[in-house]
Amino acid sequence: MRQRLSLVVLALVCATPAAALDLPARKPGLWEIKMTVEGRNLPAQTSQHCVDAETDKLMQSMSSGMRDDMCSKRDMQKVGATIVIDSVCKIGDATTTSHAVASGDFSSAYTVKISSKREGGRAVPGMHADGTSNMTIDAKWTGPCGDLKPGDMVMAGRRMNIRDMQKMGMPGAAPAPKK
């Protein structure tokens, strides 16, 4: 379970567009996000995110906060039609150096390709012995949210909402507004 939570946190950190670059907001509706890690005997992880303008900003803010809390380096540049992100982040006892390239229009689909090297910390089952990893995140807009409400995410069969994650004090999540 702890490893799955780490994957969810990593996915949130990596999958959400970098707000600091003023990327276009994702189109409101349901996004399917598929995370594939090369060379690991794990099936692709697929999640669904229902967003509207407010919850998309909230997800970006949460992801940015996690990066701020965990990353000593985060350089982002727009290079042509892509966003290039180089980072050094500490998750637990491990330090991960990553290079990511995001492309797409954020209204129908986007892709993030991440190459990383992990050093320190406990061994991760199935990870290359040298700590290298290549991940691809493919996101596509699939239509209206259906029975999901804005902010809902379905990951590994579990449904959660970004606002609930704020209340639980997830890393990087701004405190939930008081009503």
Can you offer a commentary on this structure?
By secondary structure, the chain is of the alpha+beta class. It has one domain. Helices cover 21% and strands 44% of the residues. The protein is built from 3 helices and 9 strands, in the order H-E-E-H-E-E-E-E-E-E-E-H. It has a 9-stranded antiparallel sheet. It is globular and about 45 Å long. The relative contact order is 0.23.
The gist of it:
21% of the residues lie in helices and 44% in strands. It contains three helices and nine strands. Strand 3 and strand 4 form a beta hairpin.
Biggest sheet details: 9 strands, antiparallel
Strand/helix succession:
HEEHEEEEEEEH
**Strand residue percentage:** 35-45%
Shape: globular
Number of domains: 1
Share of helical residues: 10-25%
**How many E-type strands?**
9
Rg computed from alpha carbons, rounded to a whole number of angstroms: 16 Å
Structural class assignment: alpha+beta
Q: What is the number of helical segments per DSSP (H or I, 4+ residues)? A: 3
Distance between the termini: 32 Å
Q: Overall mean pLDDT score?
A: 78
> Residue ranges: pLDDT <50 for 5 or more in a row?
1-22, 171-179
Largest sheet, order of strands side by side?
Answer: 3-4-5-6-7-1-2-8-9
